[in-house]
Structure formats: structure tokens, C-alpha cells
Design brief:
CATH topology of the largest domain: minor pseudopilin epsh fold
CATH architecture of the largest domain: 3-Layer(bab) Sandwich
Number of strands: 3
Shape: globular
Bound molecules: manganese (III) ion
Strand order of the largest sheet: 2-1-3
CATH superfamily of the largest domain: Iron/manganese superoxide dismutase, C-terminal domain
Number of helices: 8
Helix content: 40-55%
Distance between the termini: 29 Å
Structural class: mainly alpha
Order of helices and strands: HHHHHEEEHHH
CATH class of the largest domain: Alpha Beta
Strand content: 5-15%
Largest sheet: 3 strands, antiparallel
């Protein structure tokens, strides 16, 4: 099939206790896989099947008749990006160039963390919180459902999935605690630095 489920960049239990193996079993093995399978079904035999995932996202984003394809394609991309933005024993205040960029953009890591948590917890219903690069500046943003910054001329650097399926098994209704633990224990700042370098 045209679109594939990329392997997780770590073992399914590697992010415990913040993100349990059970959560990844369902979130990666069921939710993410279903987005891939559905995207393949929807694009099979159409010109979209020959395009890259990002091309599919950008081509379908503003076409209401292709909303289902957009939603599944964007969710495939968003989840792969989310997995890569985490690592075991990650998180906390970054050092080096990325640490300096965070200080410069937000006036310190603590303000960055507060702003990111606010974006993540005020996204009503399902969606995503993001750190992005826009016109050379770091910004925090949030998007509903499957929408991602690829369609708004921003370069995504990091994301946190705030759909309930991302945290309900481990944190139940406590989304603020999930986001706080994501920032303190899981963020892969090397991935953020790589995304800035590629931008
Ligand atoms: Mn999800």
C-alpha cells in the first residue's frame, strides 16, 4: 500500500510510567494504524496514492469534499511526528542552542512550559499543542482535531497529542497532569533541534 505505519522509535514500554505500554499498544497499534489503513483505502487507485503524505495533506486541506482524506492523512503525519518528539528520560529544560532559542522567544523555559501547557489544556475537545517556527520565530499554537501547522506556513518543531486517547488510560481526565509530565519527562529536544536545523 502507498502509505505505511512507521515503526515506533523506541520499545512500547519505553515511555513508562508517563505513557504506558498499554496506551502505546492502543494509540500506536490501533489508532495510528487505523489512520494509515483508512488513508490507503480512501486513496487507493487515485492520483493521491502516488503523492507524499505531506503533499496529500496540503492538497486536501482546503477542499471540503476531501475532508476525510485530509483528516486521516494529517493524523498519520501528526502521530509519527508526536512519537519522534518523545524519548525515554527526555524533557526538562533544554541546553545549548535550543535552550537559548527558548529563552529568547519566551523569556525563559518556565514561561515556555506555562504557555505550552495553557495551549494544550485550553484546546477544547480533541486536538494538538505545538511548538512551531513562524517567519523565523518560535511560537506556541494549538489546533483542533487533525489540523496541523503544515497547512498554515508554519514549521512544526514539537507536538503533544491532547485527544483523550493519548492520556485517558494513564491520567484519566487529568489532561494538565499529562501535559506537565510530557514536558518534564518525554520531550526529545534533539528532535526539536533537528527540525530547526532543517527549516
Ligand atoms: Mn492520537
Amino acid at each position: 500500500m502507498a502509505f505505511e505505519l512507521p515503526p515506533l522509535p523506541y520499545a512500547q514500554d519505553a515511555l513508562e510510567p508517563v505513557m504506558s505500554a498499554k496506551t502505546l499498544e492502543f494509540h500506536y497499534g490501533k489508532h495510528h494504524k487505523t489512520y494509515v489503513d483508512t488513508l490507503n483505502k480512501l486513496t487507493d487507485g487515485t492520483p493521491l496514492a502516488a503523492k507524499s503524505l505531506i503533499e496529500v495533506i496540503r492538497e486536501t486541506a482546503k477542499d471540503d469534499s476531501k475532508a476525510t482524506i485530509f483528516n486521516n492523512a494529517a493524523q498519520v503525519w501528526n502521530h509519527t511526528f508526536f512519537w519522534n518528539g518523545m524519548k525515554p528520560k527526555g524533557g526538562g529544560k533544554p541546553t545549548g542552542d535550543i535552550g537559548a532559542r527558548i529563552d529568547q522567544a519566551f523569556g525563559g523555559y518556565d514561561k515556555f512550559a506555562t504557555d505550552f501547557q495553557t495551549a494544550a489544556t485550553t484546546q477544547f475537545g480533541s486536538g494538538w499543542a505545538w511548538l512551531v517556527l513562524e517567519a523565523g520565530s518560535l511560537k506556541i499554537t494549538k489546533t483542533p482535531n487533525a489540523v496541523d501547522p503544515l497547512v498554515t506556513n508554519q514549521t512544526p518543531l514539537l507536538t503533544c497529542d491532547v485527544w483523550e486517547h493519548a492520556y485517558y488510560l494513564d491520567f484519566q481526565n487529568r489532561r494538565p497532569d499529562f501535559v506537565k509530565s510530557f514536558l518534564e519527562n518525554l520531550v526529545n529536544w534533539d528532535f526539536v533541534a533537528q527540525n530547526i536545523a532543517k527549516a
